[in-house]
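User: Just a sanity check before I run the rest of the batch. Below are the structure tokens for the first item. I only need the designed sequence back.
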């Protein structure tokens, strides 16, 4: 695939200096927004042209057996399991495909922002900093709400494209404390967590890699955790670590070993949903994945089928075709905010007049905290290998359980003696998503003091780890944000525990919106996928051939 270099100066931030941008974005824990100026080439986009042809926009009506909206963990699991049961499925994904491979330059990197970083309908800011980027169907969608900004990925593979990949399973005590009792932890532990682990091919970083120079920050973190007497373990990751070792040998351009995977790993080797669940689903011949198909509204037709208003886009975000797509079965997997937006819009506009009253409720942040850890005495290195090696799992008390991990910073150039810590934990605090007709989107309403209880525990642990020689900056104190939104259609209130929306035949939720606000001190991905696997087993058993 031939890379196409951007025009000189294209896509740079005009509103802040490099130092100001570096500080704000590093403080937000997302590192930066785009590719190195000398490596910011954009691959020719396989999804379509850069602008729509002039003239009338065509419209088409299509009928299908089952439609899945979203292509992240929930959508990937649903499409594969339904196809395996013989059900033809169409998967609608608003973002583009992001193909990777050795020395690819598909994803944005970390020093000169370009349009690949931002979804064109996103808020035009990154954690409080306004950005002015060319219109593009880019990778990140920031949803700015009341007291909270939520960030999600757009693209085939959903959040798995950009997540660090920490694949943690809660203990039985944690699971029973924070999930409905009707879900059997023993079954989850025996069947569904291991099933997801096999598909994602989880593996811990090898010692050979950890002992290399780029992973000095990982070693410093591990030493500090041990010295503090806190628990330490390697974190299972959906990564083929041979790719990182190959980078050390100079066989590929760095992507893991320089921390440059914050917005996707260009070299490949990351077992994201697009190359695991979705690839297996497409291989059945029964699943069609449609990138750049943005679902704008849903309703129930008089004959009981589900109807979607869909815009087919080019990569500049122009509408090239509109569709009305109908099916007796509709599975929502557009992410917590996306799924909740579709449901709350349908309820508020009367498109589906009898949705459960709790639609939009039970929304949580997984108690995310992101810290910049600066220590002039520590040799973190200007170049830090990633994405994650070690974590400290402080889970002895299920009411205050929390995790702190060390994450690499991207290659900014100068040695800032800084690395990142990420924390998340249990919290009973909840917000909600409310449809705002003026903005035509679901807006997060989050309590100003939300997660304050668990925050104190996370910060105490983080400060214990870094020690008195360090300065710890809680970036959420400046811009409160989460990369792990959960809820909005929670089980027990909007859906049954298998994802069926209460009182709505053929309507399902199979993504993070189904999770009740927390995944019990763990990164959500493994639990979202395991809950979806459990739900699909039951949906296939009881609904295929009838409802579906």
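Assistant: Here's the designed sequence for the first item:
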């Amino acid at each position: 695939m031939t890379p196409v270099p951007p025009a000189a100066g294209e896509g740079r931030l005009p509103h802040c200096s490099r130092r100001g941008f570096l500080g704000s974005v590093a403080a937000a824990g997302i590192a930066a927004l785009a590719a190195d100026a000398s490596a910011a080439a954009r691959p020719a986009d396989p999804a379509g042209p850069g602008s729509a042809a002039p003239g009338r926009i065509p419209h088409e009506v299509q009928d299908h057996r089952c439609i899945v909206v979203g292509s992240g963990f929930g959508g990937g699991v649903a499409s594969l399991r339904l196809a395996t049961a013989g059900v033809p499925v169409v998967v609608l994904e608003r973002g583009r495909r992001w193909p990777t491979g050795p020395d690819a330059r598909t994803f944005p990197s970390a020093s000169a922002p370009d349009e690949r970083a931002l979804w064109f309908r996103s808020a035009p800011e990154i954690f409080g900093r306004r950005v002015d980027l060319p219109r593009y169907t880019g990778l990140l969608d920031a949803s700015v709400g009341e007291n909270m900004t939520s960030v999600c990925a757009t693209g085939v593979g959903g959040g798995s494209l950009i997540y660090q990949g920490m694949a943690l399973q809660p203990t039985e005590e944690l699971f029973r404390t924070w999930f409905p009792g009707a879900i059997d932890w023993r079954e989850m532990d025996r069947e569904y967590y291991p099933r997801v682990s096999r598909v994602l091919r989880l593996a811990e970083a090898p010692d050979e890699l950890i002992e290399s120079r780029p992973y000095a920050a990982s070693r410093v973190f591990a030493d500090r955790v041990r010295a503090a007497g806190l628990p330490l373990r390697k974190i299972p990751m959906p990564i083929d670590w041979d790719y990182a070792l190959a980078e050390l040998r100079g066989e590929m351009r760095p992507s893991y070993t320089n921390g440059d995977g914050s917005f996707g790993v260009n070299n490949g080797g990351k077992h994201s949903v697009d190359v695991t669940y979705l690839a297996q689903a497409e291989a059945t011949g029964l699943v069609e994945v449609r990138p750049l198909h943005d679902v704008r509204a849903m309703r129930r037709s008089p004959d009981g089928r589900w109807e979607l208003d869909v815009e087919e886009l080019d990569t500049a975000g122009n509408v090239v075709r509109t569709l009305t797509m109908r099916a007796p079965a509709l599975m929502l997997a557009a992410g917590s905010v996306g799924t909740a937006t579709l449901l709350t819009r349908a309820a508020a506009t009367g498109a589906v007049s009898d949705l459960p009253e709790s639609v939009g409720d039970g929304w949580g942040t997984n108690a995310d905290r992101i810290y910049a850890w600066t220590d002039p005495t520590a040799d973190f290195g200007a170049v830090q290998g990633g994405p994650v090696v070690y974590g400290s799992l402080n889970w002895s008390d299920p009411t205050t359980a929390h995790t702190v991990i060390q994450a690499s910073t991207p290659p900014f150039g100068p040695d800032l003696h800084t690395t990142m810590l990420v924390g998340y934990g249990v919290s009973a605090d909840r917000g909600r998503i409310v449809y705002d007709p003026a903005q035509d989107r679901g807006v997060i309403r989050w309590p100003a003091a939300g997660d304050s209880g668990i925050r104190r525990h996370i910060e105490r642990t983080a400060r214990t780890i870094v020690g008195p020689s360090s300065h710890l900056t809680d970036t959420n104190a400046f811009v409160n944000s989460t990369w792990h939104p959960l809820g909005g259609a929670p089980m027990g209130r909007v859906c049954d525990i298998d994802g069926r929306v209460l009182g709505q035949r053929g309507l399902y939720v199979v993504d993070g919106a189904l999770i009740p606000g927390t995944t019990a001190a763990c990164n959500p991905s493994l639990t979202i996928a395991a809950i979806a696997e459990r739900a699909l087993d039951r949906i296939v058993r009881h609904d295929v051939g009838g409802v579906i």
